[in-house]
C-alpha cells in the first residue's frame, strides 16, 4: 500500500495532523514536549484511494540533547519506508536549524515530500511564513491541524500522488542473509555495513517472530539484511553457539535472495562452513563467499590466488559463487559485497525465452555434447525455464533414461557461459518420456 510518513520536530502538531488525516483519535496528543509513545500506523481512505499513514513521532526522548538525533533517525526511517513524506514545520516558531537539517536529509534522499507548515491559524502567521521560502521549495502547504484549515488541499495533493491501483509501486528489495559459524565476523560485518554514513538505515520487524531486519539503501538500491538483531545476539557456550549458527542460517536463508557465507581467512574452510554453505546451495540461493579478516593475513603477490584455491577446493559445490576477501575491521571491500549482491540478484532473475533456449540447446549444446564423445545424442525434446531465483530449467527427454551427472554439469556450464547467472545455482529438472514416476530428480 502507498505509504505516507509524517516527519518533524516534536510538539509541532504531527499527531493532530495524523488524526485529521486518519480521522481517528489514536495518537496521544499532549502539549508538553517529549511525550512518549510508539510509532503509529493507520490506514486512511479519501476519494476511494487508500494509503497507510505513518507517524514517526515514535519515542521522543525527554533529553533535549538527543532530540535532534531521534528526529533525524525518524526521517531516515521515513525515507526508507515511505513513498511520500510530509515534512512538518511549525510556522509560528519559524525555521530552526534542526528543520533545515531534516529538510536537507530528505531532499538529498530523492524521496517525494511535501513541506507542510502547521499552526498557520491567523493571518499574522501566514504573513510570516515567507521565511520558509529560504528552503527553495516551489510550494508549501500552510495548514492548521488543530483548526482544520488547509487540510483539504493537503489531502488532495496526497491523493493525487497515489498510483491508480492504490497500490504502492513495489520497490525491488534485495534480501541478504549473513550466515556462518561463530566468530567468523558476521556481526562485525553487519555493523560495518550498517555503520556506514552513506547508507540510510532503518530497523523494521522481520518476517519471523522476534526478528529485526535492517533495511538500507546503497547506490539507489534497497537492501534488507535479514535478522540483524539475531546476528548480533551471542550464544553462551561454544557448543550452543555452533548449533545456533546452523539454526539461524537455515532460518534466514529461507527468506533471502542472496546469501553472504562468511568464512575466516585465518582458520580456513572447516566442515561446519561446508555444512552451512550446503544449506544455502540446496535452497537455491545466490551465494557470495565472504573471506573475512583478510587484514590478518600476511600477503605476497600470490597469496590471494593461493588462499582462494584452497577455499574453493574445500567448497567445490560452490564453484559458481564469487569469493571476496574483506575485512570487517578495516572495511576493506565491504561495499564490493553489496555490488556483488546486486549482480547476483539480477543474475538469479535472468529468464531465457523458450524459443531461444531450445535453439541454443539444440543447435549449440547438442552438437558440443557429441563432440565430447558422448555415447549418444542429447535426447532433448523440449526445454523450458520454469522459474527464476534460482533459474530452473525442465528438460523433456526422449527415452526413459536420465542424463548422466557429467552431462548435466556440462549443460550447466554451457548455460553459464552463455547467460552468466552470476553467483547463482542453476537447477535442471529432467523428465524422461516414459517410466517416469514421482517427482523429477533435482540436479544443480
Ligand atoms: P560472529 O560470531 O560471526 O558474529 O563474529 P564477531 O563479529 O563477533 O567477530 C568475532 C571476532 O572476530 C571479534 O573479536 C571481532 O572483533 C573479530 N573480527 C571480526 N571481523 C574481523 C576482521 O575483519 N579482522 C579482524 N582482525 N578481526 C575481526
Mean pLDDT: 83
- β-strand percent reads 15-25%
CATH architecture of the largest domain: 3-Layer(aba) Sandwich
**What is the succession of H and E elements?**
EHEEHEHEHEHEHEEEHHEHEHEHHEEHEE
Rg result:
27 Å
State the end-to-end distance. 37 Å
Largest sheet: 7 strands, mixed
Give the number of domains.
Answer: 3
CATH topology descriptor of the largest domain? Rossmann fold
Q: What characteristic shape results from the CA principal axes?
A: elongated
Please outline the helices and strands.
Elements: E1 3-7, H1 14-22, E2 40-46, E3 49-55, H2 67-81, E4 84-90, H3 97-109, E5 112-118, H4 123-128, E6 140-142, H5 151-161, E7 173-179, H6 186-195, E8 200-205, E9 212-218, E10 221-225, H7 228-232, H8 238-255, E11 258-264, H9 271-282, E12 286-292, H10 303-314, E13 323-325, H11 334-348, H12 354-371, E14 380-387, E15 392-397, H13 405-419, E16 427-432, E17 442-443
Parallel strand pairs: 1-3, 1-4, 4-5, 5-6, 7-10, 7-11, 11-12, 12-13, 15-16
Antiparallel strand pairs: 2-3, 8-9, 9-10, 14-15, 16-17
Helix pairs in contact: 2-3, 8-9
The chain binds guanosine-5'-diphosphate (GDP).
Your description of this structure?
With 444 residues, the chain is α/β, with parallel strands linked by helices. It folds into three domains: 3-160, Rossmann fold; 173-348, P-loop containing nucleotide triphosphate hydrolases (Rossmann fold); 354-443, GMP Synthetase, Chain A, domain 3, CATH 3.30.300.20. The protein is 36% helix and 23% strand. The chain contains 13 helices and 17 strands. The chain has helices at 14-22, 67-81, 97-109, 123-128, 151-161, 186-195, 228-232, 238-255, 271-282, 303-314, 334-348, 354-371, 405-419; strands spanning 3-7, 40-46, 49-55, 84-90, 112-118, 140-142, 173-179, 200-205, 212-218, 221-225, 258-264, 286-292, 323-325, 380-387, 392-397, 427-432, 442-443. A seven-stranded mixed beta sheet has the order 8-9-10-7-11-12-13, sandwiched between helices. The radius of gyration is 27 Å and the shape is elongated. The model is unreliable at 26-38 and 435-441 (pLDDT under 50). The structure holds guanosine-5'-diphosphate. Guanosine-5'-diphosphate is lined by residues 180, 182-188, 292-293, 295-296, 327-329. The site of guanosine-5'-diphosphate (GDP) has 15 residues, from helix 6.
Amino acid at each position: 500500500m502507498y505509504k505516507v510518513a509524517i516527519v518533524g520536530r516534536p510538539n509541532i502538531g504531527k499527531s493532530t495532523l495524523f488524526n485529521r488525516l486518519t480521522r481517528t483519535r489514536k495518537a496521544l496528543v499532549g502539549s508538553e514536549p517529549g511525550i512518549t509513545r510508539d510509532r503509529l500506523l493507520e490506514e486512511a481512505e479519501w476519494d476511494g484511494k487508500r494509503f497507510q499513514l505513518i507517524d514517526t513521532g515514535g519515542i521522543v526522548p525527554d533529553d533535549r540533547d538527543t532530540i535532534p538525533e531521534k528526529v533525524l533517525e525518524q526521517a531516515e526511517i521515513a525515507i526508507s519506508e515511505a513513498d511520500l513524506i510530509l515534512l512538518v514545520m511549525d510556522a509560528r516558531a519559524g525555521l530552526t536549524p534542526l528543520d533545515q537539517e531534516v529538510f536537507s536529509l530528505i531532499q538529498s534522499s530523492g524521496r517525494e515530500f511535501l513541506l507542510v507548515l502547521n499552526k498557520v491559524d491567523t493571518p499574522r502567521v501566514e504573513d510570516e511564513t515567507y521565511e520558509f521560502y529560504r528552503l527553495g521549495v516551489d510550494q508549501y502547504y500552510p495548514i492548521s491541524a488543530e483548526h482544520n484549515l488547509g487540510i483539504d488541499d493537503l489531502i488532495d495533493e496526497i491523493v493525487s500522488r497515489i498510483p491508480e491501483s492504490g497500490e504502492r509501486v513495489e520497490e525491488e528489495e534485495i534480501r541478504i542473509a549473513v550466515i556462518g559459524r561463530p566468530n567468523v565476523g558476521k556481526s562485525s560485518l553487519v555493523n560495518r555495513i550498517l555503520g556506514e554514513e552513506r547508507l540510510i538505515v532503518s530497523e523494521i520487524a522481520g518476517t519471523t517472530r522476534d526478528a529485526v531486519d535492517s533495511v538500507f539503501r546503497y547506490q539507489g538500491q534497497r537492501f534488507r539484511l535479514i535478522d540483524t538483531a539475531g546476528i548480533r545476539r551471542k550464544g553462551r557456550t561454544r557448543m550452543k553457539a555452533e548449533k545456533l549458527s546452523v539454526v539461524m542460517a537455515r532460518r534466514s536463508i529461507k527468506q533471502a535472495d542472496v546469501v553472504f557465507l562468511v568464512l575466516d581467512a585465518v582458520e580456513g574452510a572447516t566442515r561446519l562452513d561446508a555444512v552451512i554453505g550446503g544449506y544455502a546451495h540446496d535452497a537455491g540461493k545466490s551465494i557470495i563467499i565472504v573471506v573475512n579478516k583478510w587484514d590478518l593475513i600476511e600477503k605476497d603477490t600470490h597469496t590471494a590466488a593461493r588462499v582462494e584455491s584452497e577455499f574453493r577446493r574445500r567448497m567445490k559445490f560452490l564453484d559458481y559463487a564469487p569469493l571476496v576477501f574483506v575485512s570487517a575491521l578495516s572495511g576493506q571491500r565491504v561495499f564490493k559485497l553489496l555490488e556483488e549482491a546486486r549482480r547476483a540478484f539480477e543474475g538469479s532473475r535472468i529468464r531465457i525465452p523458450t524459443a531461444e533456449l531450445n535453439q541454443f540447446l539444440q543447435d549449440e549444446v547438442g552438437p558440443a555434447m557429441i563432440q565430447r564423445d558422448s555415447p549418444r545424442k542429447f535426447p532433448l525434446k523440449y526445454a523450458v525455464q520454469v522459474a527464476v531465483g534460482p533459474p530452473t530449467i525442465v528438460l523433456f527427454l526422449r527415452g526413459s533414461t536420465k542424463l548422466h551427472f557429467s552431462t548435466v554439469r556440462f549443460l550447466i556450464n554451457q548455460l553459464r557461459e552463455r547467460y552468466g547467472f552470476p553467483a547463482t545455482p542453476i537447477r535442471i529438472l529432467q523428465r524422461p518420456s516414459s517410466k517416469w514416476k514421482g517427482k523429477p530428480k533435482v540436479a544443480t
